[in-house]
Specification:
Blueprint lengths: L2 H7 L1 E9 L9 E10 L2 E9 L5 E12 L4 E7 L2 E11 L4 E6 L5 E5 L4 E2 H9 L11 E3 L4 E2 L1
Parallel strand pairs: 9-11
Antiparallel strand pairs: 1-2, 1-8, 1-10, 2-3, 3-4, 4-5, 5-6, 6-7, 7-8
Length: 146
Amino acid sequence: METCLNSHLSGKWYQIARSRINLKNDFSESLFYLSISCENNYDLLFVGINYDRSKIIKKFSMKIISKKEETILMIKNRCFLKTFRLLLHDKENDILIISDMKYKHILILSKKSSVNHEIMELSLSKIDFCKFDVTDIRLYSSSIID
């Protein structure tokens, strides 16, 4: 993983879309703030905004593990450890596509709160979706624009 990728990941990321998973909290918006704590390690602050505009804030640490064929994201806090695959990092359009290790769920993040429909289609075309149920992806309101 190159250093410019590490610095490029820092900042505010908006959740554009995700698989419909049964969560205790179904947020109207989700934001992720990433800051580098040391090489390949990040501090991750998750902000979930409920429909009544109340917020849930959780702090995690994230480590990036680069393997020859894939990039793994390990996210943890005191009582939580989960690993994810980085499927796509589109630096030009500031889009991240992440999945769980079993390819059961997908998460699409962008540094912009809204993404042009054509740009989203281009990014999605770079992913092999045969492992996913794409009919189960939930878009966030006004996250995709024409």
